[in-house]
User: What shape does this take?
Amino acid sequence: MTRYRTDAETEGQPTEVNLHVARGRSERSDGDPDSVVTVGVHPSDVDESDTVDRLNAGVEHPE
Assistant: This one.
């Protein structure tokens, strides 16, 4: 997972956020790979990294 810190806007107010991006590959039953991308965002003043990691770990791609 790659993490970025960037600026966003919430209800017209500037907010610094942490952006978590993960990319994986999953083999389909026909042998062709699929790319799976997950994204998590939270305000940088609240550490939700563990929560985003747990959510990402729970992603399952159907065969």
